[in-house]
Amino acid sequence: MPADDVINKSKTLRFISRTHLEMNQLEEALIAAKDSEQLDPTSFQTFYLLFSIYCHMQQAQEASNYLRKASDTEDFHADYFAVAAQGAYEVR
């Protein structure tokens, strides 16, 4: 599959995952996000989405792992820690 198609499919899966997350369908959100990660294993957006899903699932260790992965990407800015903390606080 061409690289652009892979990236577009990954983006679509993230959108589907976010939709499931908004509907509190956590398992479905996780499956779509993990599928996105398989297609684009270095995506900040996917790592942050997985962080959010695991926060909603009350799985702090997994959430922490994905926040760490997100912070290792080029797209990460230190300000995202504040956003992540607020997001984690809101779901507890």
Topology:
Elements: H1 3-22, H2 26-39, H3 44-56, H4 60-71, H5 79-91
Helix pairs in contact: 1-2, 1-3, 2-3, 3-4, 3-5
Total helical segments? 5
Number of strands: 0
CATH class: Mainly Alpha
Span of the ends, CA to CA: 40 Å
- What's the mean pLDDT score? 95
Q: Brief description of this entry?
A:
The protein is mainly α and 92 residues long. The chain is built from five helices and no strands.
Descriptive notes:
The protein has 92 residues and is an all-alpha fold. The protein has one domain (3-91): Serine Threonine Protein Phosphatase 5, Tetratricopeptide repeat. Helix content is 78%, strand content 0%. The protein has 5 helices and no strands. Helix 1 packs parallel to helix 3 (44-56) and helix 3 packs parallel to helix 5 (79-91). The radius of gyration is 13 Å and the shape is globular. It starts with a helix and ends with a helix.
Notable traits:
single chain; 92 residues; mainly alpha; Serine Threonine Protein Phosphatase 5, Tetratricopeptide repeat; 78% helix
